[in-house]
């Protein structure tokens, strides 16, 4: 039996299709030019799509269905992915600089950035990131306020000056993470592993650190006002006053 023809879109054509319908018209491209049900920006059912290395800079992907899609190395800088469903998507080394992922679903997504990738200033406020892989991610100055990161692996993540106000990080794995200047005010870090993490100048005002592992953590100049530290392990941690906790 003869195989079905395979449609291949060049990066340039895909980018054009993303931006070419902004006038408010509702064209109906034929099946010969677009994959079924994937007609951005009007119809964004692109679950399982392979968009490797496609340039989607500034693209409007609001509410897009990108479940299980392959977006590794894709340039999504400045893109609007608010409310998009990226469950199980592969975003390894993608560029999310200044991207808007407010309220996006990234449950089980792969966002590790070993070997490249940039999320500088990404807006992930309110995003569902449960079960996501964020090992080694560069989330410098990112906004993760109100995001759900329960139990997420953030080993070695860079959250320099990031906002995590009211973020749920209970039982998250933040071993050796770079958290200098990060704002964790009112965040839930109960049971989190922060051993060896650098929390210099971090704001932990009213944060819940009950049962957290802060072994060998650096808390120099950190703000712990109102923080809950019941049953937290502070063995050999460097405290805000510079003293090493015994």
Question: Briefly, what is this?
Answer:
By secondary structure, this protein is largely without helices or strands. It is 4% helix and 2% strand.
Structural notes for this entry:
The termini are far apart. Helix content is 4%, strand content 2%. The protein has one helix spanning 11-19, and strands at residues 38-39, 43-44. The longest helix has 9 residues, at 11-19. The chain has 246 residues and is low in regular secondary structure. A two-stranded antiparallel sheet has the order 1-2. The chain contains one helix and two strands. Strand 1 and strand 2 (43-44) form a beta hairpin.
Query: Can you give the mean pLDDT?
Result: 81
Distance between the termini: 73 Å
The largest sheet has its strands arranged as 1-2
Structural class: little secondary structure
The biggest beta sheet is recorded as: 2 strands, antiparallel
Uncertain runs:
1-35
Query: How many helix segments?
Result: 1
- Using only C-alpha atoms, the radius of gyration works out to 20 Å
What is the element string, with H for helices and E for strands? HEE
Please give the share of residues in helix. under 10%
What overall form do the CA principal axes indicate?
A: elongated
- Percent strand equals under 5%
The number of E-state strands comes to 2
């Amino acid at each position: 039996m003869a195989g079905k023809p395979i449609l291949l879109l060049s990066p340039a054509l895909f980018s054009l299709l993303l931006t070419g319908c902004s006038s408010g018209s509702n064209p109906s491209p034929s099946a010969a030019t677009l994959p079924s049900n994937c007609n951005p920006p009007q119809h964004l059912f692109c679950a399982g799509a392979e968009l490797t290395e496609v340039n989607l800079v500034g693209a409007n992907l609001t509410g897009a269905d990108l479940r299980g899609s392959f977006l590794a190395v894709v340039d999504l800088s400045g893109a609007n992915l608010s409310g998009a469903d990226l469950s199980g998507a592969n975003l390894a080394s993608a560029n999310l600089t200044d991207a808007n992922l407010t309220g996006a679903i990234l449950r089980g997504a792969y966002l590790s950035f070993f070997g490249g990738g940039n999320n500088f200033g990404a807006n992930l406020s309110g995003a569902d990131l449960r079960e996501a892989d964020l090992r080694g991610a560069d989330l410098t100055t990112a906004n993760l306020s109100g995001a759900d990161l329960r139990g997420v692996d953030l080993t070695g993540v860079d959250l320099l000056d990031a906002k995590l106000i009211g973020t749920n990080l209970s039982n998250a794995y933040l071993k050796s993470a770079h958290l200098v200047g990060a704002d964790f005010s009112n965040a839930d870090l109960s049971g989190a592993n922060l051993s060896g993490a650098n929390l210099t100048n971090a704001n932990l005002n009213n944060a819940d650190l009950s049962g957290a592992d802060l072994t060998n953590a650096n808390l120099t100049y950190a703000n712990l006002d109102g923080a809950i530290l019941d049953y937290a392990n502070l063995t050999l941690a460097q405290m805000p006053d510079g003293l090493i906790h015994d």
